[in-house]
Amino acid sequence: MSFPNWFAAELFSALELRSGDEARPEILEALHRLNRAYLSETPAAAGWEQKGTHTAYALFYMTQNMPKLGFVLDRAPPSTGLTSAADLGCGPGTLLWALALREAAAGRPVPKLHGVDNDPKMLEIAARIWARLRRSLQLPEDHLTLEQGDWRQRLDLPVDTLMLGNTLVEAGIPDADLLSALKCRELLLIEPGTSRHFRRLLELRGHLLGSGWNLGFPCPTAGTCPMSASGDWCHFRINRLGLPHMQRMAALAGRQDPASAFCGFLFRRGASELPSGAWRLLSAPRRVSRSVVRLVCDGRKVDELVLNRKGKAAGNEDFQQAPAGSLGLLSPAPESAFKRKRLDENQSFRSLFPPISVNLTPTDLAD
Fold this sequence. Notes:
Blueprint (H helix, E strand, L loop, with lengths): L6 H8 L10 H15 L13 H22 L9 E5 L5 H12 L6 E6 L2 H18 L6 E5 L12 E5 L2 H4 L4 H4 L6 E7 L2 H15 L3 E5 L18 E4 L4 H10 L5 E11 L8 E4 L4 E3 L2 E7 L4 E6 L9 H5 L5 E5 L2 H7 L1 E2 L4 E5 L15
Parallel strand pairs: 1-2, 1-4, 2-3, 4-5, 12-14
Antiparallel strand pairs: 5-8, 6-8, 7-8, 9-11, 9-13, 10-11, 11-12, 13-15
């Protein structure tokens, strides 16, 4: 599903807004400032001191980024024994709310939450959202801790899951000394879906894989990324306009493209939980005449595979229909499929960890 049907009303109440207030001039002007600042990668130009900027961020960018967490976690081996999670550079609570809603919707206990940000206004908004959200989720007030400070000083938080969403774009990649302080069991990173940010994340990937970590998403193996020496990069897209007020804001701001691209990595300690021979579907299905074309990666190479109309069979329906980012097993002979760049009716592709029905990811978008 998408957002719970009560989420927008609770968000507006927390921000002390009424329906329709998202079209107020100061909020739309702030949305324009934020957009220009992010496109130019100069966050300081967002005008955080100006009226409406924090509200516009919570209304639009927070809700835009929340589904990215579900996209990654739905396509990785399930976490077990998750009791605590922290969002470093949490802003108004973006990944905290995404995780809480996802776990609650799946009928699992919501982990204890911890948010760190250096902007007191963001934390004030997060506290107001939490006051509304926790009642809907029936959680105690102390289930969340909010802390003002520099996230770099809190990489050593002893939590199960540490999350950073669009934090590194502003602050750079932590050095090896900072990374050595990590005490979490898993680390989730979400950054803008550009080639530059992907290559910055590859640097961090190398540090972690050399320190006993492994990968849950997106790489099928922990070897050298096959895109590291190419002009392509690993990124995915979600529908960023998952709520009616976001659609109205986008229309009024002239920003109606529903696609939001991002790069995401999920690191876990210990041995890999991914099966040998797995493939990641990097793109949504592209239909050319009666054929299905998809970009795939097995951790050693990346290529487009074609399934023509004569090769379609029940065993490869997942290849035809599974959403972008899905992981699957191909049998037999993935090497021969890469060599021929096509699948046939004798090869099956079975999705692993299919997205659960309670995630926060709206409809996937084709590249």
